[in-house]
Amino acid sequence: MGEAVVVRNKQVILKDYVNGYMKPSDMVVTSDNTIRLELPKVEDGLILSKNLYLSCDPYMRNRMGNVVVGTYVTSFTPGLPICGYGVARVLDSTHPDFKKGDLVWGVVNWEEYSLITDTTSLIKIQYIDNVPLSYYTGILGDFVFVSAASGAVGQLVGQFAKLLGCYVVGSVGSKEKVDLLKNKFGFNEAFNYKEERDLDAALKRYFPNGIDIYFENVGGEMLDAVLNNMRIHGRIAVCGMISQYNLDRVEGIYNLHLLILKRIRMQGFLVFDHYHLYPKFLDMIVPLIQEGKIAYIEDMVEGLENAPAALAGLYTGKNVGKQVIFKDYVNGYPKESDMIVTSDATICLELPKDDGGLVLLKNLYLSCDPYMRGRMSKPFEGTYVDSFVPGSPISGYGVAEVLDSTHPDFKKGDLISGSTNWEEYSLITNPESLIKIQHTDVPLSYHIGILGMAGMTAYVGFYEFCSPKKGDIVFVSAASGAVGQLVGQFAKLYGCYVVGSAGSKEKVDLLKNKFGFDEAFNYKEEQNLGAALKRYFPNGIDIYFENVGGKMLDEVLPNMRLQGRIAVCGMISQYNLDRHEGIYNLVFLLMKRIRMQGFIVIDHYHLYPRFMETMLPLIQERKITYIEDTVEGLENAPAALVGLFTGKNVGKQVVAIVHE
Ligand SMILES: NC(=O)c1ccc[n+]([C@@H]2O[C@H](COP(=O)([O-])OP(=O)(O)OC[C@H]3O[C@@H](n4cnc5c(N)ncnc54)[C@H](OP(=O)(O)O)[C@@H]3O)[C@@H](O)[C@H]2O)c1
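That's the Alcohol dehydrogenase, C-terminal sequence above. Prediction below.
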């Protein structure tokens, strides 16, 4: 045997633990490392891989911090390569399950070649004909959990998922069934839920990186634990809730807010609606991928050199006269005194010319949004935005004028919208996330409302998640707010019958007389929400645009019609509670085949141009009405923000620092 080849091994190394937004410079690409392209034959169980595709996933930001508690993944080690999901080819193997030439997907290091000593995450790729290998870092590499998995349905679901290349874990009620799942049905893992005192801990053990697909057969406590462990964009197919069928009162589900945080789709179905599809299912899915008939969009960068920027690109954000400083993490309802307005900071109103890529902003309008409450809490698992930093200014969406710029895309005098700080002037070090305002023929503040996040949320939520049909009966909660007022008007323009709920008589009048809702009611005056819904929806609801959560959601569920859609946009009634209220009526998802899907607008900004094309004419032709509630001056910003949670605002809450 000739000398084994030793080659340079390009790697992406984490320099040090990251605080705040990550930057490409937090990682360094080096070729200092060398690797021998043959394994020592004396050591069993090793794999040498050539890495082909790497997946950039948001959870990797958690691994870059020095996190000790509260995370479900371990931190990366500074000085060593980062790791994540990837597709690789086996170059050499002393492991009985893998041989030279095999294609595998699983956890690999961000480097050209990896010596893999822990092969537990690796899965052999079976389908390669016309299936892009990179799909295995996404659509085909899903982590699937099936409850009641040895049952007639569960055993088949697990095997379908395995055939598709998923990693499948099942839960069952005995040791014998656990053995069946692993040895007969080919599940990757299985556990006896009756022996687990802490279901959440058990799921974390089997899914350290979370669950993509949950096939729900049991409901109750298991569903709550699963919600906690779902990954972003997860899907829950509600097939049954057997644990609840014999209870006088079903158990409450407390983690439904995670539908939003994690953009989860949860849908009930009954098989007799779909019998025409059943025989075709197995034959259908793999050929569809092979023939390229299933669309799967990738954002692919070439080479390890570009990997740090690609990963950092998953996140946006950051940045300083007068400022609104966040004092400390908040529990319960936020108060004005949780923020302090100071004039202690100074800022030079000219940028150093030798420092490229900076933009200096004079902030004009700031947006108050309910999601900012989440940022006032201590960092918690599963959140999609960073917490505010105690002692630093609050940040959020704003409209601003560029005072100075060393970034080629922006020049002095430009007007922008995007993420900025609650202060008079802000130095933006990552201006790529700012949007240059093209349309100055509408009030500038519109760019943080009807033409900004609130407008996009209403547009995406209604058109992409409600599947509207002419004549549909639509219910919108928090209907006079920034999002709700627009959703209701979109639905009216579509030909739907629309009812809204809001928290005062003034708001109810606005809904009916200004926004054109067919009906509206003050939920605070209704002793029995269920009865109120029956009054306004004697024939049920086709579409519920969910903004509030809690009791309203629980009462809406039994009032939904067959095949109803619930777009879960927000749950503001729950944001300030230590423990969320339980939802007891989820079984109606199943009985009425309801699709309930959480979404977060930031995932849908590729639709922004189409949204602008729709929205601008509607505003210009006065086909849509939009109400703002504007306070003047940074001094009044804290009160405006906390007012969202008591319903003080009437319409979109805006803070004007300087009028244009
Ligand atoms: N998924 C996303 O990407 C996304 C994006 C933007 C907003 N959202 C969500 O959408 C919802 C509406 O946001 P928005 O910007 O339009 O806010 P907003 O409605 O302008 O302001 C919040 C309104 O919520 C109502 N509210 C507050 N506490 C409540 C409670 N306990 N029960 C019922 N209603 C309550 C109040 O009106 P009343 O007087 O009617 O009570 C308040 O005026 C929020 O849940 C928000 O988190 C989600």
